[in-house]
Amino acid sequence: MTRSIGAALLAVCVLSACGPDYVRENATDEQYKRDIASCNSFVGEMMAKERGINMDREATLGATDTRLGRPRLPQQMAQRSDTLRSDKLMDMCMQQRGWTSKRNDWWPF
Fold it and tell me: Is there a contact between 78 and 54 (Cβ–Cβ < 8 Å)?
């Protein structure tokens, strides 16, 4: 469980440092910092819960790919999935606060 929380926190830190910028008309830097911090917290909590569920499922059912000798593939897929999911959660959270992403998502990968 500690490993999943660490991964989620790392994802949030990376997301906050490298994530897309958001714009909102007549917004101040203070509003942006407050909203981004709130959304980072939300994303971190959600990702920690989701990783915990995945770890519980793997502990119960077993990791098929690990038993078949492919331990890195599931890990790489989980990391990519976490990145995409955390980006979507961040966008959703910021949009609910009136912010618009400045990035162009014509190809999400």
Answer: yes
